[in-house]
Amino acid sequence: MIRLILDFLRSMLPGMVLFAAFWAALLPLRRRRLARLGLVSPSSREWLLLAFVAYCGGMAVLTLLPPEFDLLTVLRKGYDGPFFRRGGTNLHLLQTLRYSLTIFAANVIMFIPFGFFPAVLWRRSRWWKALIIGAAITATIECWQIHIGRSFDVDDLVLNTVGAMLGWLLWLILKKPTRTCEER
Fold it and tell me: What global pTM score does this model have?
C-alpha cells in the first residue's frame, strides 16, 4: 500500500512542481491586485493556496494524461505513443468494488482536497459548493479520459464527488475562525 502511494506521488511530482512554479511566477501580480483592492493575504493562507495549486497540478498529471504516459520518463526520453485514442465506459454503479477496495478508497481519498481547500481558502463555504466543485471536476476528468485511452467510469464520478464532500465535512469539523484576505 505504501509502495502504491509513493508511486502515485512520484507520478504527481512533475505536475506539482510545474503548477507551483506557475503560481510563484504569478504571485507578484496577485500581490499587486490585492494591494490595489486594499487587501492583505496572510502567509498561512498563501501557503495553503500554494499547496492546493501544487496538488491540482499533481492530479492533472495523474488523471489527464494517458495511462502509460510518465512525465518524468517523457522529459528524459520523449514519447512516441499515441496521445489520443478511444477509451471505454463503465456505467454500472459500484463496479469498482469488484476490482479492489483499495481503488474504491483511493477514488474517495484523492478528492478530499477538492472539498477541503476551497472551504479553507474562500469565504462562505457551503456544502453545495463542494458538491458542485467535486462533480464538475470529476465530470470534466472522466469525459476527457475517454479520449486518452482511459475510461469514463460512473463509480469515479460518484466516489470522487463523495471525496470532495468528505473534504468539506473535514473542514467543517476542523474549522476555527480562519483569516482570509484582510483590509490593511
Answer: 0.87
